[in-house]
Amino acid sequence: xxxxxxxxxxxxxxxxxxxxxxxxxxxxxxxxxKMYPWVCGRCSxxxxxxxxxxxxxxxxxxxxxxxPPDGSNWELLCIYCHDNEHSRYIDSExxxxxxxxxxxxxxxxxxxxxxxxxKEKK
Length: 122
Hints:
Layout: H1 6-26, H2 28-35, E1 55-59, E2 74-78, H3 79-96, H4 114-121
Antiparallel strand pairs: 1-2
C-alpha cells in the first residue's frame, strides 16, 4: 500500500511537467521560435499555432551542435524549404568530393546567332 496521497501525486506530476517544459524551452527550436517571427525565411509563408509543427529550425552551417545564444546560426524554414536546402547542400557536397575535376564547359551554345536573327526581324 502506497503512503502517497492523491495530492502528493498531483504535486509530483505538476512538478515533472514544469521541469519537462523548462528543458524543452532550453532547446534550440523553442528558443528560435521565441526569438524570430513565425515566417519561413525563404518562401515567407506565415505560421500560427495550428500549423507551427511545419516550421523548422535550420542550422545555417549545417552543424546541429552549433547553437549560439543569439540564434545567429538559425533560420526558420517551412518543411518544404528546409528539405530543399538540405538537398542543395547534399548535392553540393557530392559534387565537391570527386577527386577528378569535372569539366563543365559545353560546346553547344543555344543562343549562338540570336543577335543576327533579331537584327533580321527589324
